[in-house]
Each structure stands twice: as C-alpha cells, then as structure tokens.
Amino acid sequence: MEVSAEPAVTQFRQPVILLDQVTKYYGNVQALRGVSLRIEAGESVALLGPNGAGKTTAISLMLGLLRPSTGHVLLNGGDPTIPAVRRAARLGAMLQNARVIDLVRVRELLDVFRSYYDHSLPTDELLEIAQLHDKQHSYTQHLSGGELQRLLFALALAGDPRILFLDEPTAGMDVASRRRFLQCIRELHRDGRTIILTTHNLAEVEGLSQRVIVLNEGRIVADDSSEAIRATASGQFVSFLAEEQTDQLLAAIPGVLRIERQGPRVVLLTRDSDALLKDLQRQGIATPHLEIRGASLEEAFLALTRKEEQT
Fold it and tell me: Domain range for residue 83?
C-alpha cells in the first residue's frame, strides 16, 4: 500500500469534485440544503440515503446536468456544466434513468459510443467486461434486464473514464452477474479511477467503498468509513436459540432494548452485552448457539436517518 500524501500537500491539492454550500430547489421543494463535500482523485465513495434524500440531485450537479440554486460545484477546478470541462475530466456515468436505442445491435451501439471519445476502450474489451460477447449481434430490445444493465455499464466505460458514476448499477442483475460486476468495480478502482456509487444494497458498499456519505432530507448526516459509521449505531446484538414463550421473560430484563425473531433464533439489542449475559444467566435462560455482534452498516444507516427525522 502506498503511503498517503503529507497533510500539508493534501490540504492544497485540488479535488476532482467539490461542492461548497450547495442548495438546490425544484420549485418550492428543497432537494439539497447547504451540502459541502470534496472527493479526491482515486477515491471510492458510496453515496447513500433513503428515497428523496438528494442523491440523484447531487450526482446530477457533479455531472453538470444541473446547476445549483446557490453555492458552487467544481469538477477538476472547473464548471461541470461546460462541455470542455467534462471532456477534460473524462467522465463515465451509468444512471438509473438511462435508456438505450432500440433496433440497434449491441456491438454497433458500443462502436458508435466509442467514436465520441478521444480516449476509448476497444469494443471487444467492453464486451468482455460486460460479459456480452455472446450477445454482441443481438438487438438491444431483446436483452434481459440484467443484460441491459451490463450494456449500460459498458457504455459508461466506452471513453475509458477516470471518474466513474454508478447510480444503482446492480439493479436487475442476477447473483453471478452482480458478483462479477462488483469484482470489475474493484479492479477499476485499483487502476486509480475515482468511483462514485449509489446503491440500496448496503452489503455491496462494505466491499467496494473506502468512504460512505449518508444523505438524508438534503443534508449530509455522516461522512466516514463504513467501519466508523457502523460504530455510530449504539448497541450490540445478542442472539441465540430460544422458544417463543421466553420472549415475555426476555422483554422484562432491563438491558434488553429490542427483541426480534428470526425463526427459532431470538435477537436482542442491548447497550451492554456482558451485563445482559449475566442477567440471562441469573434468570436461568440458556443461550445455545450464542452470537454477539455490532451493528451492520444497514442498521447504522437506519439509525442515522431515523435520528435526523426525529430532530
């Protein structure tokens, strides 16, 4: 692993993406509320948030598809709404609302997209990355949902981008395709590309992104590693096999904050697992197949967004 730059150098290095006190209105609806963030070259960043949190708006601003209502957005130090700035940055984007042309073959479409760029990947390499060699002569309207997603990914890579935006990229993919796709993203990041990812599948984030930014109601509520964000969710989960008739007895124990059932397994949320285990022992409650774990990223995410909604 390479040693990171000295703090003094990092402080003055130009980020590839900068949002400074950005707000965005759609009529009377405020989608972003004073959002500030910077993304450095080579970072892998996951942008998370519930529906309506502002993720798509933030990405559209970074891509220069929208202008902020107030504040500033910079791409490599320039205005991303200027085509020359976007070309110089070498962007690639796979967006949720993207569509492909019907009545055109897969290879033909990739050839056309490659022709738009000064730097491009060979068509055969794009077909290999997207696992679409056997579909290269098929018309796009005959592709399955997962195959269309893989084609959109290949189109996003056509210009050999240095900054890659992926908005819910694995939607519609089967398990095997998703696994290959995620491995490809890791390889692209190891190659030094900047990756900005949005997803509802939080399990994907932990294996892909160094940094997680959580948006809720147009504000950033967390910006850290997935490990650090998991640590913000107070409490531990203690689970073991237990009959359902013990649930009432478990609920009476002071250290139990919440009880969940997962078939024959009971899951208890507590702030002090050691004290809870002592209480269970005093009550004569057996704990076969005992497991103790911290909060998952999904549980921390839910805790963060709930906390914001309650303030």
Answer: 1-90+163-172+191-232
